[in-house]
Amino acid sequence: MPAKDVSSEFSFAAIPACLSGWLVPGLGHFMIGKRNRGIISFAVVVALFTLGIQLEGELFELDTGELLTLLAGLAEMGVGLPYFIIKMMKLGGGTVTSVTYEYGYTFCIVAGLLNMLIVLDVYDILVGRKD
Amino acid sequence: MTSHFLILSVFALLVSIGFALLMREKPRDQVRFALFSFACFVGSAFLIGWLMYPFPS
Q: Minimal Cα–Cα distance from A54 to chain B, Å?
């Protein structure tokens, strides 16, 4: 099983780039030399997340007893630093009565999930599964 | 921004770009895939809208 060993060795090397890519969307790609991809990833994720907040979407808490709310919160946390910055600024409380409330949190959730996919893309490139 | 269609279009555009970036390697293929994905998003929204049309609101 030599191939498995190589793969696990590379996965450790991929951790810093993946962590950076999670914290700052697109930074992972930027670090591994895929600058254009990194810049576009950053723009897409941050645009989705910012629009979500502008549309009065909610950043869900993780300490609620409801499973769906917990999952939504985890998905939103996938955005990385922007999530924590908005939380610290006491924004992202959401306005349930707003017409665009559901759109808003959907944008935020999708931004987080998309960033997770982008991080997985960085990992795949670093372990050699993708160019 | 309270136009449902505008919000749908912006969402479709951004997600299509994200998907194209991850699923295709060459810039030309990425543009093609993004356009195809965008058309699918908007087209399916229209289709589902038409299917729901007979139902009372």
A: 9
